[in-house]
Structures are given as structure tokens and as C-alpha cells.
Amino acid sequence: MDIKCKISRMSADAPNWFAIIGDVNLPEHRGTVFGLGNLINGIGRGIGSIIFPAISSALLLYYSEPLNYFWSLILIQLFFIPTGICYLVACFYIEKDITNIKNILLKRANEYRKEKE
To answer: Crossing angle, helix 80-116 and helix 14-23, to 10 degrees?
Structure first.
């Protein structure tokens, strides 16, 4: 499978993000990962609500009214570059991680089945 196909299956949409982190973590760790993800997401949204008006106001010193919003939006998009890099790195490991989790869960199921017999 080529990289283009792997990247096209990944998305930053919340349902897909929760599915990805759910599939690559063991059940006993999923609650912690979801909680940490929600916390970081909330902090990011809060900081974004503060940063945009601050950047827009600062740029008002250099640009007139519509252009300060234009440049503010461009500068805010730079924060998504590290996110894209993280998703790019994750796309190389996600299939292997999902396979490893499935193997661990299958091994646990077989051990449990043997204990019951």
C-alpha cells in the first residue's frame, strides 16, 4: 500500500481521531488517552480563541482593517503544520500498531479461553 492511500484514510475529524486512538491503544489505556486527548483539544481551542484576536489586534498596527484578519488567518494556519507532521508520522505506524493490538487482544482471549476450560 502506498503512502497516498494511507494518508487519504486519515483525517483530523474528531470521530476518525477517536477511532484511530481507540484502535492503537489497549482497552485499559483508552480512557486515559481519550481524556488526555479531550483535555489537549480543549486547551488548544481555548488558546486559539485568545491567540487570534491578539494577533489580529497586533497586526492592526501594520495593516488596515480587512488585511489584518487576512494575515491573522494565515499566521494561525502555521500552527497546523506540526499537526500535519504528526499525522504523517502516524500514518507510517498505524497499521502496524493496530495489528499489534489485535494480536495482543487475540492472545488474551485465547489465554482466557484456556483458563475457562
So the answer is: 40
Indicate the SS3 state at residue 117. coil
Rounded Cα distance, 112 and 78, in Å: 49
Which pLDDT tens digit goes with each residue over 63-106? Answer: 888 899 899 989 988 888 988 898 888 888 888 999 999 999 99
Query: From the centroid of its chain, how far is CA 15?
Result: 11
Long-range contacts of 85-89 (CB under 8 A, 24+ apart): 87/7, 87/10, 87/12, 88/7
pTM exceeds 0.70: no
